[in-house]
Amino acid sequence: MGGVVVVCLVLLALLAPVIAPWNPNRPDIQKILDGPSNAHPLGTDQLGRDVLSRMLYGARVSLAVGFVSVGIASLIGVVLGSLAGYNGGLVDGAIMRLVDLMLVFPRFFLLLAVLAFLRPSIWTIMAVIGLTGWMGVARLVRAEFLALKEREFVIWSQAVGASGFRIVWRHILPNAMAPVLVAMTLGIPAAILTESGLSFLGLGVQPPHATWGNILNEGKDAIEIGWWLSVYPGLAILLTVLSYNLLGEGIRDALDPRLRQSAARFVSRAR
Amino acid sequence: MTPGAPLARLALILALGLAGCGGEADSAIDHAPASEKPAYGDTFIEALIGNISGLIPNVLSDSASFEVGSLLYSGLVTRDRDLNLIGELAESWRFSKDCLDLTLHLRRNVRWHDDAPFTAADVVFTYETMINPKTPTAYREDFRAVASVEAVDPYTLHVRYKQPYAKALQSWGVWMLPKHVLEPYVREGRLREAPQNRSNPVGTGAYRLKEWKPGEKVVLVANPDYFDGSPYIARIVYRIIPSQATIFLELKAKGVDSAGLTALQFKRQTEYPAFRKAYHKYEYPANAYTYVGFNLRDQRFADRRVRQAFAHAINKREIIDGVLLGLGRAATGPYKPGTWAYDPNVKTYPYDVDTARTLLAEAGWKKNADGVLVNRHDQPFAFELLTNQGNDERKKVAEIVQASLKELGVQVDIRVIEWASFLKEYIKKRRFEAIVMGWGIGLDPDQYEIWHSSKTGPDELNHISYANPEVDALLERGRTSCREEERKQYYTRLQEILAEDQPIIFLYFRDALPVVSSRVRGIVPSPNGILYNFHKWYVPKHLQRYTAE
Amino acid sequence: MLGYALRRLLLALPLLLGITFVSFVVIHLAPGEPAEVQTGDLSIQSDAQARQLLRETYDLDKPLHVQYARWLARLVRLDFGKSFSPDARPVLQKIGERLPVTLFLNIIEMLVIVGLAVPIGVLSATRQYSLFDKVTTVFVFVGFATPDFWLALLLMILFGVQLGWLPISGLRSLNWEYLSFWRQQWDFLGHLVLPILVATFGGLAGFSRYMRQSMLEVVRQDYIQSARAKGLAEPIVIGKHALRNALLPVVTILGLSLPGLIGGSIIVESIFAIPGMGQLMVQAVFERDYPVIMGNLVIVSTLTLVANLVADVTYSFVDPRIRVGARRGRR
């Protein structure tokens, strides 16, 4: 169910050039902030551009940024978190201190520095959001590992000589994924909004190109007379989160029986 | 910036942007019935969108500090409702024939807020502070022309200039600083650390500081000993509210009495009876214009025909309607329509895409089969248009310009960049092709700092690297002449050249859009905005809302 | 455990040094230089001499390592330096006048969020896919996806403008000084209701989702099943055995949020005109007010190090099997 919605959203974004009724970037000063109508089902923005068309085009950037940057962040977070949690000791110490550093590092200046070297593009945006957003996942995964590695089934598989990688991959990681799924679900809307924050610095998607985040932002000044500028992108983001959440639930439920089986197998062998 | 008019306060009374030619039809016309006699009392609450950064405006540069400062301090001269220079702390003055000597006579009844008398020694001290290399002020330029300042007696001042200086008189509108309080701080170069700048400003203005809570509010109370009589309104509270949307809601809920509005709020959100009853709206062109500037070191933009073509291709009306909802006036040059230096008869560039194409063709740029504008070597005309973050208006201008130039086959990429890096990395280093920016202009037409070819260094203001020998000569003559009729000729010629040359495309003068609670009387809209006579504003007794203890 | 904590604390000092050094360098090398923020047109008022003077006053003309050494030398005497902004006030004073409000708001918010999110999470996990679960899921995500400023303005219009029940913005009414002590507190709290409401609604999703998810994991574990099999009452099983173990991610997230307590939300602060840390820091960053930025950084990094240490130590209380700091395979 969640998957279906996600696929639909992606399709809409891909088909934007075909289905968008108007040119999303063409100002029309005769139609500034017109409410929803037949011609403009979602109204127009502060320069008279069609909000529906801008939402469709904006979906391309926003969905891509949301999914990819969260993917990057989760990947880094899971790998480093597992390494730290499983190995403990020095490795753990080093990785966790890196996390501490990243957490307190003044991100604004890091972004400015990045800006000095790179041109803004959707790839830079995804990389920047991903590379600065993995610390939470790392700490969550590590905490799960700390707990899981003391469980019987892990100790048993070590005893029977399973390789570290195999233990982590087959036994611990699947059990540690629950908080990661939550982090990913929450990370997607956060990333979509972070993108419009980056535009502040000149690093985000530049005008006139639309993203859900910057449509929302522009709606801020017109909230009383142009509610559609904040409501529709807000709804789109909500829809994305909810469907992704359903998808995540589904994945977890699908994973689950297998996990319990493998855990149970070890427990029974242990007896 | 106020080009060449560092005279803070004159430019700054405009902080709210309240300067200009009288309001339009819906400005409050003061019709006080007999029952509404001026009365003392009440509190006036104004919303400021930005924090004030200190209490000595001579060393500050943000508009909020200037607005507060203009009530705490006074200068020797000021501008009246028609923008004429009139005496404030000076009673009278006289120039010598050659304009090199200026003698000022000071008022004798002026006292500092701590009751010390104000004398010529304070004026000399203020001058010395402004030229002291240890004083971090941005308004030094005006005083560089001074050869000597001397107190002839406690109430007479003699100033000698190295050469005639057009802004000599205006420059004495600088805020006067108290010698007996600040002398040691200036000597040690610690002016910013003085209590004067933080908690206890001693001025000669109509109001005294009661309290400054950083980020929250500034409270002023009437100065009963003000030389022009105690102001009527007993207390002013500046509330710092960083969100324009919140300010507007506070207006609706009567939490504030005055604020500047956005065009959208002014045009679309205040046209209902309750609001019109509670507030008077004012509308004047602000002393600032917005422009599209080109880096003239770039070969493509160095060709005048290209700039003229772009001027024809950009529809100023569309920009004013689209960005300001019509609340602005097209600019034809760097002077505001209605001011004495302004020349209405310069060359204009009506929106005309065909002429633009012709001009571009002459310059060697033609559309190819794909509709892209290319030169002989088939290189497309594409450039980056930069503007600063935090100014939505400029962003929208950039978007409209981009769409307009697309018609010509020119590809424009917009980049919005955070202010401090924009200045340091792009403007100062001249690393830009084109920019959307604004100039705040002073009340004097001297714009030496902006257009003179000697002012192209990194910390200087001729960012676009404009160089025209005739313009240089006119600017030099204009600032060293002390006769207005003569200066007018120079500046008329300057405007003709700038209009022909289009070193930048002058877009518009935005309107300032303040509203003030309708219970306040005594407001007279004028070419100088509304704030110039604040100390004469009052609330009739039966309409007073707050009792100030 | 005590030894471990002490070791970590000892290690924290060089780490702090490293963090401040790296940050110091990046902050100074990043584009821009101290400037007064101007967004209007009266923008680039500048006097080359004044600029040069400021560069000298602030040591910005010195090599970076000299600047850092001087900063550090002051810091060990607990002198955080003076702000670069034109009021030139001491950094500690500037932070000191903003911190209490922010801290107060954030702590209340955190308590409300955790107080609501944990029960929501537990209940929706134990009743997975029930109506309650579905409703709260949608509810917390709506909160998460609703833009702060939108909700804030909506509430301000409703309670401030239409109904007139609550003040719209600021911290205190203008006549605050003239109120009695209790009226003052009442007035202050009234100003805080909306900001707290907005921040709480947005923050529920995080904690409640983590809580729900990890509770779902835990209730399926064998020891919970066996506790049930032993015939223990369900509330005891959930409340005593399951909850404790399920708190693991919540502890992690709390640890991560702790340093955030001293940072204000920029959007909430500027919409409600609250003079808190968020606004101070935004201004400092835009003005390149390095001493204020560094001062804040020192405080935040200290808090982060402590918070993560506390979280690590707490893990073993939540789940006694966890022994942080021990090397794997050593027993």
Layout of strands and helices, then pairs:
The complex is a heterotrimer of chains A (271), B (549) and C (331).
Chain A: H1 2-14, H2 16-19, H3 51-87, H4 89-104, H5 107-117, H6 122-131, H7 135-148, H8 152-159, H9 164-199, H10 212-219, H11 227-270
Helix pairs in contact in A: 1-3, 1-11, 3-4, 3-6, 3-7, 3-9, 7-9, 8-9, 8-11, 9-10, 9-11, 10-11
Chain B: H1 8-12, E1 43-48, H2 63-72, E2 77-79, E3 85-87, E4 90-95, E5 101-106, H3 120-131, E6 146-153, E7 156-161, H4 168-171, H5 179-187, H6 195-198, E8 207-213, E9 217-222, E10 235-240, H7 244-252, E11 258-260, H8 263-269, H9 273-278, E12 279-281, E13 284-294, H10 299-302, H11 304-313, H12 316-324, E14 328-330, H13 353-362, E15 366-367, E16 373-374, E17 382-388, H14 392-407, E18 411-417, H15 419-427, E19 434-440, H16 448-451, H17 469-479, H18 484-501, E20 504-512, E21 514-517
Parallel strand pairs in B: 1-10, 17-18, 17-19
Antiparallel strand pairs in B: 2-3, 4-5, 5-7, 6-7, 8-9, 9-10, 11-21, 12-21, 13-19, 13-20, 14-20, 15-16
Helix pairs in contact in B: 3-5, 11-13, 12-14, 17-18
Chain C: H1 2-29, H2 48-57, H3 64-76, H4 91-126, H5 131-145, H6 148-162, H7 181-219, H8 222-229, H9 234-246, H10 248-257, H11 266-271, H12 277-287, H13 290-318
Helix pairs in contact in C: 1-13, 4-5, 4-7, 4-13, 5-7, 6-7, 7-9, 7-10, 10-13
- Average pLDDT confidence of chain A is 85
The counted number of beta strands of chain A is 0
Most extensive interface, chain pair and sizes: B-C, 76 and 61 residues
Q: What's the quaternary structure here? A: heterotrimer
**Sheet/helix structural class of chain C:** mainly alpha
Low-confidence stretches of chain C: 38-45, 327-331
CA radius of gyration of chain C is 24 Å
CATH superfamily caption of chain C: MetI-like
Proportion of β residues of chain A? under 5%
Number of helices of chain A: 11
Rg from Cα of chain A: 22 Å
The tally of helices of chain C reads 13
User: What is the string of helix and strand elements of chain A?
Assistant: HHHHHHHHHHH
Mean of residue pLDDT values of chain C: 85
Q: How is the biggest beta sheet of chain A arranged?
A: none
Poorly predicted residue ranges of chain A: 258-271
- Give the helices and strands of chain C as they follow along the chain: HHHHHHHHHHHHH
The helix content of chain A, as a percent range, equals over 70%
Helix content of chain C: over 70%
